[in-house]
Specification:
The chain is an alpha/beta fold. It contains five helices and ten strands. The longest helix has 9 residues.
Length: 167
């Protein structure tokens, strides 16, 4: 069952929170004031979290334009060359925002790996799995959910990879 945030801010359900509830995942909703291009630095600062524990959901594609998701620490970038090598692709590049929106069903800045429009392979930076809790997008700009990172492996089938570049 989802825990309510102690703030008076009401956050309506999203496909991501509906999906998490349907799977029986406990989570804490963390609303914050969204800032265009603020990224994980802004959300972490707004919520008093370490940016390393805020996980961004990135929609990318391989050389055949097949979509995939990468879950990465907020304070790191993805080495697309390393990722491609680890997943057996010739290349991996970020999707254009409108393409990412179409694949995920979410607006960029509010992309969650849960309850996506299209099923896609999910890759997770392996060091994320060492954290006790992560904050990841809950399906809307300005809304994160705090969960145990193992949820991503157990319920999404996320494959651990090592492709982080410290920003």
């Amino acid at each position: 069952m989802a825990k309510k945030d102690s703030k008076t801010t009401h956050v309506s359900e999203t496909p991501a929170t509906q999906w998490l509830k349907a799977q029986g995942v406990e989570f804490i909703g963390l609303p914050y004031d969204y800032l265009e291009h603020g990224g994980t630095a802004h959300s972490a600062a707004s919520l008093g979290l370490d940016e390393h524990t805020v996980v961004k959901t990135l929609v990318m594609q391989d050389q055949d334009a097949k979509p995939l998701m990468v879950l990465m620490h907020g304070d790191c970038k993805v080495s697309t060359k390393t990722l491609a090598r680890q997943i057996g692709a010739k290349s991996v590049v970020p999707c254009a925002p409108e393409v990412a929106n179409r694949h995920s069903g979410y607006l960029v800045g509010g992309t969650s790996p849960f309850g996506t429009r299209k099923a896609m392979p999910v890759y997770i930076e392996s060091s994320i799995l060492e954290l006790p809790l992560i904050a990841i997008n809950g399906g809307r700009r300005g809304f994160l959910v705090q969960i145990k990172p193992q949820v991503c492996v157990h319920l999404l089938g996320a494959t651990p990879v090592q492709c982080a570049l410290v920003e």
